Amino acid sequence: MSKSTKPKKRILVSLHGHDWPVYPCKTRDTTIYRVFHRVNGERKPKTFMALADAKTDAKNILKEIYGRAASKIHLTEDEKRDWKAAMDLLKSAGLKCGLETAIRHYGDLVKIVGHEGLLTDVARKYAESRGKTGTPVKLATLRDEYLSALKTDGCSKRHIEAQRSHTGQFFRHIGGAMSDLVTRESIQAFIDSKKAVDPRTKKNLLDAIKAMMAFGKSKRYVPREWEEAEHVSLPAIKPKEVKIYTAEELKKLLIAAPERYRHILALAAFTGIRSSELEALDWKHIRLMEDDPADRLIVLDLDVTEEASKRTIQITDQLYGIICGPYKTQGKLWTGTHDEFYLMQQKIAKAAGVVWKQNALRHTCISAKVAVTKDVPQVAYESGNSVAMIKKHYLSLMTQTAAKEWFAIDRETVFAGIEERKKALKKTAATPIVRLTLTAGT
User: Fold this and answer.
1) DSSP H/E element including 315
2) Could you count the other beta carbons within 10 Å of the beta carbon of residue 170?
3) Is the pLDDT of residue 4 over 60?
4) At a CB cut-off of 8 Å and minimum separation 6, what does 412 contact?
5) Cβ contacts of 181 within 8 Å, gap of 6 or more
6) What is the Cα–Cα distance from 45 to 38, expressed in whole angstroms?
7) Buried b (16+ CB within 10 A) or exposed e, 321-359
8) Mean pLDDT of the 204-211 span
9) What number of H helices and E strands is found in the chain?
10) Strand, coil or helix: what is 230?
């Protein structure tokens, strides 16, 4: 019988943070490897000639012990009872995690408070403070009340729909959480899940969550010390290139535009009003019939503007001449849908032979005003921007000559171009079509 020596060291096999030993043993000139199993409370060795086989066996033991199987053949009877009791407690508490995860969390909490006996005191104190600062509700309830409050406060329909979309995406991601249990980790996971979304949109999503949770604080649905969203990481936002049009491109757009949209293009080009504001604008906001031209104003109320306060914009003689034709005392300037509004822009640009540049009419107007007036604060006020924003993006985009050409486009220029376009289209339609017939031999 061969005489094996007592192992001098052991080899640990690891799986998910747990170890199981493999014991190398010398027998004559050969090394064998033993893995001890526990069967019915007794240690039973298994011997392997190859280390790889022994490691595989040890790893299988770890899988069995820390798996979800009902039978744990490597546990003693007492350990099996403890295991079952622990899993029953997790289930009764509604926690969908493994025992190892629960123990790790417990260990972290003990480290934080300093002693396991203090955990109950800390939890009780937190519960009492939460009861004093407010009562949490389901996130769905918080979101519904938030959107209702925006409507009550007179926010624009476009803003409310944007908030509905952004908060709805977050709600669907996080599920039925309570309002006081929204964490930085859950918000970060939501933002990171938006793989195909640009950084600016990610910021808009985060801002919507912050606004909703701030409303929750005001209703005492969220603890007043809640600051989880302030620690969410966002990708860097690259500044967008500010694109503008030339006066000739604007003239082509106005000439190609149908009557029901021409005044909207003119307002964007000569006042710098945002597209979202133009969609919400009503004729009642346009004071066009005043006797004194200085009193002719566009009043952007809180139900129209995206800003926190309303603003007014002077109607110039140039703009007056273009919008006086379709003027009404009341009713929406644009009566179509949101999608039709933007589709019309593309159709007009195609008909004019001009590339449509999103927000370029507004950008050009702001740049032209700065170039002509040199009055940055006034331009900032009329455009709903800050002085810093105007200085950063619009100071050097247009020369004074180009700006004067922009504001020289008036009613006579546009309608003369429309008549020329009609004649050209009529001439094209009247041109006879010559058909050639090929015969054999030709």
Assistant:
1) none
2) 20
3) no
4) 321
5) 136
6) 9
7) bbbeeeeeeeeebbeeeeeebeebbeebbeebebebbee
8) 94
9) 18, 7
10) helix
**Choice between 384 and 117, residue whose per-residue pLDDT is larger:** 384
What stretch of H or E contains 331? none
| Structure-token match 């694109």, residue found | 243
Alpha-carbon distance of 142 to 157, in angstroms, equals 19
CATH assignment of 139-231, among 2.30.30, 1.10.150, 3.40.630, 1.10.238: 1.10.150
Q: Residue 298 region, left (φ>0) first, then alpha (ψ -120 to 50), else beta?
A: beta
Residues 300/156, Cβ–Cβ less than 8 Å: no
pLDDT at 144: 94
Average pLDDT on 381-393 reads 90
Candidate from 26-35, 113-122, 412-421, 430-439 with smallest mean pLDDT: 430-439
Range of weakest confidence among 113-127, 173-187, 219-233: 113-127
* β-strands 286-287, 42-48 pairing: unpaired
Q: What class is the 247-427 domain?
A: mainly alpha
Please give the structure tokens belonging to residue 246.
């030339």
Give the pLDDT score at 442: 42
Flag the least confident range among 105-114, 175-184, 211-220, 325-334: 105-114
Sign of CA dihedral 240, 245, 249, 250: positive
Q: Percent of the chain having pLDDT more than 70?
A: 88
pTM above 0.85? no
What's the Cα-to-Cα distance from 340 to each of 72, 219, 258, rounded to whole Å? 65, 38, 13
Candidates 188, 181, 201; CA nearest to 229 is: 188
Q: For helices 360-373 and 376-383, what crossing angle results, to 10°?
A: 150
Write the DSSP symbol of residue 287.
E
Q: Which residues lie closer than 8 Å to 249 by C-beta, 6 or more apart?
A: 352, 354
For the cut 60, the answer to whether the pLDDT of residue 132 exceeds it is no
For residues 254-279, b (16+ Cβ closer than 10 Å) or e, as one string? bbbbeeebbbbbbbbbbbbbbbbbbb
Confidence of residue 2 (pLDDT cuts 50, 70, 90): very low
Separation of alpha carbons 7 and 107, rounded Å:
34
Residue boundaries of the structural domains of the chain: 1-95, 97-130, 139-231, 247-427
**By 3-state DSSP, what share of the chain in percent is helix, strand and coil, each rounded to 5?**
55, 10, 35
CA distances, 386 to each of 389, 393, 394 (Å): 5, 11, 12
